[in-house]
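Re: export button greyed out
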Amino acid sequence: MIDDIENCPCSGKNMSNLAAPWILLTLFNRQGLHGYAIKKIIEGYIEEFSLGLNITGLYRHLNLLERRGVLCSQWDTQGRGPARRRYTLTEAGQECLWRWLNTLSTQAMLIGKFFDRAREVLPASHLPTIRLEKTPDT
Amino acid sequence: MIDDIENCPCSGKNMSNLAAPWILLTLFNRQGLHGYAIKKIIEGYIEEFSLGLNITGLYRHLNLLERRGVLCSQWDTQGRGPARRRYTLTEAGQECLWRWLNTLSTQAMLIGKFFDRAREVLPASHLPTIRLEKTPDT
DNA sequence: TCGAATATTATACAATGTATAGTAAGTTAC
DNA sequence: GTAACTTACTATACATTGTATAATATTCGA
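Workaround output, generated via the alternate export path:
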């Protein structure tokens, strides 16, 4: 249950199901990364949204994606520091990434559809400045 | 576990967390609707995406939203057919809807950010024709 | 040496999507 | 008139995902 506004889903303090595609895209660009490094890289791209990428969720995604054959991994006990599990994208993983691109495009259109209806129904004063197109640098 | 591509999350056969804001928007526009009617109305707006709005999930949302004080309901045993539970949006529910608008705007920008990075990394042949702006009628 | 950063794992809970099934009342077609 | 369909809601169960907390272990800097 929810006691306060902060914890209500409407406050949107989450990745909105973008963790998995970000992982695939990051590994497509650079194979052999490990979980902790993937976290740092992804956070670099979304830091402006102040949405930390929860580390537990990230490792669980890596596990699940490997069980699905989308990723494969091997321990790296060379080098300094704690052992790392290095991940690579399989061919199935690339296919998965192509499908995510279409899925996210559809999700963006679904959000657009919601705002189309919101503009019909709600007073303009409550509608945020919606910038669904690529935002120019401010 | 996932056996086939159809059931992989990358295939995007879901509402992507839009059920709750659609319920609030629908009730803002017309108070006193019941679950089954809300389902029909929302599906009318998203039918082109062939994403059915799962009825079980919808009723659970209504329950949860009422427990949060976002909606309130009363049984209607008048009229014909089975008893209906009619819902109205509370003041807290309106606030919740305003916050959803901002949250969904941010989610759209997050997807845009993902595509910005995808365009840097992926061959153009795999990028869908992304139309994050309002789609003109075809 | 103490703490911070690196790197992974385990447990637990809530929110959400979905599948299946059941109850019950009204309507329509044969 | 009864069988099938539509309307309307409920219950149970499971997977995915986000998040919080905690534990383990290594390395590095002050």
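Residues 91-121 of chain A form the longest helix (31 residues). The button fix ships in the next patch.
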